[in-house]
Amino acid sequence: GAGVSQSPSNKVTEKGKDVELRCDPISGHTALYWYRQSLGQGLEFLIYFQGNSAPDKSGLPSDRFSAERTGGSVSTLTIQRTQQEDSAVYLCASSFFTGELFFGEGSRLTVL
Amino acid sequence: SQKIEQNSEALNIQEGKTATLTCNYTNYSPAYLQWYRQDPGRGPVFLLLIRENEKEKRKERLKVTFDTTLKQSLFHITASQPADSATYLCALDITSGTYKYIFGTGTRLKVLA
User: Fold this and answer.
1) Average pLDDT over residues A9-32
2) Average pLDDT of chain B to the nearest whole number
């Protein structure tokens, strides 16, 4: 596909369950970002992968959150033992050296 | 503390007028500043990027200025149309040149017909 693809688009889970969110970036893009957007709020930085460098995890809100990027392409954001405050839209973006970010449509997570 | 501020109040303007949105930041020295448009339920879409050594950038009806002394960017939409109604986000690379982008809170613009 031509754009950034995220799955699932919607996820409803029970408190305490683990969830995995997937991001397929644009082919050839070296950088990949995860952001979180709560209702009516701006984008909160979570994690940033750039090429083969160690990821910048400084935005992850707790150790329940982790992310990996396999083969410099697909990324998975994992949230363990979900809490209600984790409910938000999780946005993935990728970019090449120009710095322009291309976003997916997001994964909406609802924790009951 | 470090932060990026945009008008939190919604901005309503009349069709045909120029909309001006502000983005102020503190304690950063970004190499790049970007503006994005976000429609409800969608991911943000890139509009313009301006570099620290550029004062102004234009694209069709859009104009961005970047004042590194004031730590401020202004985003203008001229001859605004109802289709321009959306939330506009600024983003800057908080560690200069690393492309680690942090976003402002966004300003909701409504253009009235």
Assistant:
1) 96
2) 92
